[in-house]
Amino acid sequence: MNILVALRQERGKLQQQLKGIARAILALSGPHPGASREKDTSHKGVARKRTMSAAGRARISKLTKARWAKFRAEKARKVR
């Protein structure tokens, strides 16, 4: 019976250590625990690709086209 008591005590010690480790992980994950890198992987451990909204793509496309139009206009002015 002493073995059972010793094992239960050891289990209690291990549980306390696990709680300490969990608190340390929580503290190190920063002010926003939900912002960890774990969410960037699927349940199989494969990295998920980030997606961009259609509005975001359209905004970037519009700005890029404007930037290139300005570049081409300046280039045309220099040639003349």
The SSE string, one letter per element, is: HH
> What structural category arises from helix and sheet content?
mainly alpha
The amount of beta strand, in percent, is: under 5%
Low-confidence stretches: none
Instruction: Give the domain tally.
Output: 1
Compute the CA-based radius of gyration.
Answer: 28 Å
Count of helices? 2
N→C terminal distance: 99 Å
What summary fits the major beta sheet? none
Please estimate the helix content. Answer: 55-70%
Shape: rod-shaped
Question: Could you walk me through the main structural features you see in this protein, from its secondary elements to its overall organization?
Answer:
The structure is a single chain. This protein is mainly alpha-helical and 80 residues long. The protein has one domain. 66% of the residues lie in helices and 0% in strands. The protein contains 2 helices and no strands. 0% of the residues are buried.
Describe the structure using short key phrases.
single chain; 80 residues; mainly alpha; 2 helices; rod-shaped
SSE topology sketch:
Elements: H1 2-28, H2 54-79
What is shown here, in short?
The chain has 80 residues and is an all-alpha fold.
